[in-house]
Each structure stands twice: as C-alpha cells, then as structure tokens.
Amino acid sequence: MTAYREVRVRTPLILKILPVVSIAAFFCLWEFVVRSGIVPETMLAAPSTVAELFLVKLRETDPDGALLQQHAWVSIQEAFTGYFLSLAVGIPLGLAMGWFVVAEGLARPVFEIIRPIPPVAWIPLTIFWFGIGLPGKIFIIWLGGLVPCVINAYVGVKMTNPTLIQMARTYGASDWQIFRQLCVPSSLPMVFGALQIALACCWTNLVAAELLAADMGLGFMITMGRRLAMPEMVVLGMVMVGLTGAVIGIVIDRVEKKLLAGIRR
Amino acid sequence: MAPHSSDAPVKIACAHVSKTFIQKGKQEVPVLDDVSLEVHENEFLVILGPGQCGKSTLLRIIAGLETPSTGSVTLKDKDGMAREVQGPGSDRGLVFQGYMLFPWKTVQGNVEMGPRLRGLPAAECRALARHYIDMVGLTGFEGHYPHQLSGGMKQRVGIARVYANSPEVMLLDEPFGQLDAQTRIFMEQETARIWQAEKRTVIFVTNNIDEALYLGDRIVAMEGKLPGRVQTVYEVDLPRPRDFTDMEFLRLRQQIIDASRLTL
Questions:
Q1: Interface pTM (ipTM) of the complex?
Q2: B-chain residues within 8 Å CB-CB of A169?
Q3: pTM above 0.95?
Q4: How far is CA A13 from the centre of its chain?
C-alpha cells in the first residue's frame, strides 16, 4: 500500500531573514541621514529621538496637553463611535436600496451626489455646526464609513442569484420574505467586506478631522508637533496612527473570519 | 392498473399560448406559437424536445415566471374552480435544472422552506420535511449543507422541497440535465417510485427520449425549432415500473425518433 506523505516546503532561511534586514536597514538609514546632518533635525527626527519621546509621552502631558495614551484613546473612541454609526445606518440603507425600488429611487440620487465629496471637505461646515468637539469629528468619520457600507450592501443584494429569487417566488414568498431570507444572507460576504473597508475609511478620515478640528487625539498631536516645531512629535503621531490602525485592522479581520466561518461552513 | 389518465378531470391547461421575446429593443423572436395542452389530475406529462424549442419557456409561463404574449394558462384549484394563472405562486412548484438550493441552509432547512414561508407551525414544518426527506431517501442527511451533497442528492432535495410545499401541480425543468448518465437513470427510477408513492400532477420537461418514455403517462413532443409548436402527443400505456429494453418501449422510442427525425 502506498501512503501519501505530506510534502512540506520549507521557506528558505534567506526569505525569513530578508524582511528583518530590510526593516533594520530602513531604520539605520533613517537614523544615519538625521544624525549625519544630511537632513536637518528641524525637518525630520531620528528614530531614536522618536523612541525617546514615546517613553516621555507615556508619562508627561507637556507640551501638547495630554498623554500619548490619552490621545490614542480619544482617537479610538471617536473612530469606533463613527464606525459603528456608519455601519448602523449604511448597511440597512444599502440593503434596502438594493432590493426595494422605492428606497433605491429615493436614496440613490442623493447618495450619488454626496458620494464623490471627500468627507474632509465637510470639515469647515461641521466646525460651523458642532465646533471642534467630538460630534463634528464623529460626523466626518461617520460620513467616511457610510459610503463603503452603502455601496457594499447595495451591490451584495444586487448580486443575489436571480434564479434563487425566482425559485422563492414560485414558493409564494413575499417581497419582504425574499429580502429577509434570501437577499440579506446572500449579501453577507459583501457586507463583511464593508466592515474592513469602512474601518479603513473611518481611521483615515479621523486623522484628517483631528488635524483640522480637535483638542485631543493622535491627529491633534501631529498638528501640535508642527506648531511646536517638534518633528519627533509629528513622526511619533504618524507611527501611532499606523500601528493603532494596523492592530484594529487585524482584530476586525479575525472577527470577520470567525463570523464568516460560522455562516458559510 | 390505474385508470387511464385521460379519464381524470383536467387539472391545468394551456390555451393557445404564444410567446415572443423582444431582443435588443427591436428584433422579435417568436419562441412559442399557439401551444395548447391539457394535463389531467395526477397525470405525469412529459414535454419532450431538443434544446432551443421553447419547452422551458412554456414551463416558465406555466410557473408564472413569464407572461404569455397571447393565450392563457388555467389551473383548477382545490375547490375545483378553474382560474387563470397570474404570476408565480405556491400552487405550482418548480424544480430547477440548477438545483437552486439555499447554500446556507441544511437539507432540512431547504425542504422546510415552503411550509415555513406559508407560516405553518415549526413542528409541522419539521415533520413535513422529515417525511419527504425520507421519501426521497435522504434520511441521515438532514443536517448536511448543499455543498456536501452530490448532484443527484441535491436534486432529491429539490424534489423533496417541492413535495413538502404540496403544490397543485409540480413542474420539473430538465431536473436531471446536469447529472451523469448512470445517476440520471437511477434518479429516473427514483422519480417514478416517488411519484407512484404520492401521486401528483406533474409536468416534466426533458430533451431525453428514454427519460420521457420511462416517466410519462403522455409525451408532448415539440417541434425541434423556434417557434415551438406541439408536434405529436404520444400515449405511453406501459405498465410501471418500466423496462428500458421492453419491446413496446423500444418500438415507441423508434417511433418518436423517426417522427422527430433525430439521429442518435
């Protein structure tokens, strides 16, 4: 009897080392160009300076008025509030637009006009409306997340197999039953896609909103770094935005995989 | 033997049904031309014809998924009242060629669909589904999802689902078209067995002469080109279960082949 042996392809050592080498080289080069004075310290901070500031900012509120973790926490709170609001409004709206002709006829034209306006362009208006506090920023973030939610849910419903819809009709299913039991489940993969895309949009717009209208948050910290002529604070803010966004993305990805696995089986 | 099918009252009738599709806004494509046929109660009627002869369109018109350009379809409902068919409804159950099961529902969930849509109590739905799952021979597979089943098993689910919805007329649109030859013969035998266990009025569309002869009380042979017209109606007065190699079976088979000038 022949037994099949599992063939394991080993990743060559060099391929494992290369990413480490590349990152190390990047930071070394960065440190070098600043230390050697090729790029003046007023224009860019060396990674070691940024790391130093990172440790300081965990304990000191000066000079921008809040601890690093406070900035990050404010940003996360804003992002998630806006994100969940955009899911809560965008997904039902998109689903309805995909199935109900009246909803599509009413909402689609308005949506198509608003869609190409970048959420950042709304910032001046939101400052008139809400000032520079939380509600304005949440509005911008909500707007940013809304668009992908609506589009994905809408397309997801539109992609429902038309023969399945006909099948349901021959079983006497009502419009509402077809929507609930057929269109919504079959749009779920697209809707889950929206969870990721919307989060990315929310996070991007959050930083933009904080750059212009905020008194705390990572984007605000970046602005303060510029005002105080502290490039290390600008870079620290940027790095924190990137890291936090990446972590949130990974978490959402995990959640999505779990949920989808439960549905698709 | 059962009484001759034409003794039973008419269950569903097409009267002078024609259908013309408009292609690309202008060009008219006549698909059906003046098709009239009657199906008797608990009769197994087969509509036989090659591809592109309008037979599926006829079935979709009967199902209410298409409207006839002229003519009408009348169905006698449970109180014996004949009424014209308007749109799809649960009184006519359609089995699709491509199975069309809900991929996210189990076998049980798929078969329960009809009764659940009609709002029957959950216990009753479950019992109905179990009965018909058993009848099509899928006991033990209730919790399986469609992607875990073979093509033949999927179509058994399709048949059980239609039975569970207890329609007045069952419509089958080339249900075994995607199966391999062996599974197909087996499914034909199963269909005959299931239908004899619980008789229903059936309209079965196929392009396969053997399948038509094996299953049908009557065979409506369509002309092999558009627009589709009824060519000949054959009475198949053979005892069941039928034998693919029976002399009379083969004689009828040859007669249909000669008449339709098909070469095999």
A1: 0.85
A2: 64-65, 87-88
A3: no
A4: 34
